[in-house]
Each structure stands twice: as structure tokens, then as C-alpha cells.
Specification:
This protein is of the alpha+beta class. The chain is about 25% helix and about 40% strand.
Length: about 190
């Protein structure tokens, strides 16, 4: 007698466990907002990440979409500060060696050339960002972040290591004030 009610409850239990998992997957893949995580490397900081999409994909198999990762920590007083801004492309990027303004020896600086376009602006802002250690990312600074946080869409164009153009787009959500405050970025024009 007891096995009959238990057998009828198993499908209900299975459905109740599967539905929240499916709903969570759908909301995380369709949710295009800043994700926030608390990190620490001895000093606590907050990492904000925004997932984008490729408008022009790099050559080869790229399983992960591009990501903007912004690390913000405690600055002076009650204000925050930008620790690090990072474009994670997921493929090795083309590294250019740029001659410094003053030559002290034979050193050249490694740079990733990017073109940054906000909203539907016809003008592209050409920048030189520092490559990350693994060369699949590029580090940007406060000026570029301010420009990105003030926009609705951001298009970033660069090249992979073979010289093939890559174009990425990020839809900047309206909840970017949290990022701006945490990094002490004034987004007013």
C-alpha cells in the first residue's frame, strides 16, 4: 500500500527539481546584466562581468563568448577605485610592439590595437590596450571604461594572432551605476 503513493510522488518530485534548474539556465543565458562576484587576492575587491557576443567571430572553434571584466576595490575614503578592466576575447590576440616616446635601450611596448565604438556613433576611437598575461585578453583603463558605461552598446574590434578581424558587441545595461559607483567613474557627460 505504501509503495503506490510513493511511486506517484516520484514524478512530481522529479518535475519540481528539474523545473527550477531549467528556469535558472534560461534566466542566466538570457540575462544580459552585470554579474557581480566578491574576490580576494589578500585584499577584497568586487569583479563585475558583462558577457557579449561576436559580430565577427575569430577563426577556429571559440566556445565562450567575449567578456568585459571590471575589478573594483576600496579607494581613498569611502570612494571605490578601478583596479583592472579586462576584455577577455577567448583567443590569442594580435600583439603589436610599439616604440616608446622616449627610447632607453631597445625596449618596445606590447599593445593590442582596438577600435572602440559606442552606440551608433560613426566615429571609432582607436586605442592601444596592454595585452593580458595569457595574450587572450587586453587591459583597458578608466577612460575606456567611462566611455563604455555611458553607452547602450559597445562594439570592440581587434585582430586575433593570425591577423583576422574580430568584432565583439556588448549591450550595456541600465544598471551600470553600480559598476560606476564601485569604481568611482563619473558617467555624466
Amino acid at each position: 500500500m505504501r509503495s503506490t503513493p510513493l511511486l506517484t510522488l516520484v514524478p512530481l518530485l522529479w518535475a519540481s527539481l528539474a523545473f527550477p534548474a531549467r528556469a535558472q539556465q534560461q534566466s542566466s543565458s538570457s540575462g544580459q546584466g552585470w554579474r557581480q562576484a566578491q574576490m580576494s587576492d589578500g585584499t577584497p575587491y568586487t569583479r563585475f562581468s558583462l558577457t557579449g557576443k561576436f559580430l565577427k567571430r575569430p577563426a577556429g572553434d571559440v566556445s565562450n563568448p567575449p567578456v568585459l571584466a571590471v575589478d573594483c576595490g576600496k579607494g581613498r575614503g569611502s570612494k571605490g577605485k578601478l583596479i583592472n578592466g579586462n576584455l577577455q576575447a577567448g583567443v590569442p590576440l594580435k600583439i603589436h610592439y610599439v616604440e616608446p616616446s622616449e627610447i632607453h635601450g631597445t625596449s618596445y611596448y606590447p599593445k593590442v590595437f582596438v577600435e572602440l565604438r559606442v552606440d551608433d556613433d560613426a566615429k571609432k576611437d582607436k586605442r592601444q590596450w596592454t595585452p593580458g598575461k595569457d595574450k587572450t585578453s587586453a587591459v583597458f583603463f578608466k577612460f575606456s571604461l567611462k566611455k563604455m558605461l555611458s553607452a547602450h552598446t559597445v562594439e570592440i574590434a581587434t585582430q586575433d594572432e593570425s591577423g583576422t578581424d574580430i568584432v565583439m558587441q556588448f549591450d550595456v545595461p541600465s544598471d551600470s551605476n553600480t559598476v560606476a559607483q564601485a569604481c568611482d567613474i563619473d558617467t555624466k557627460k
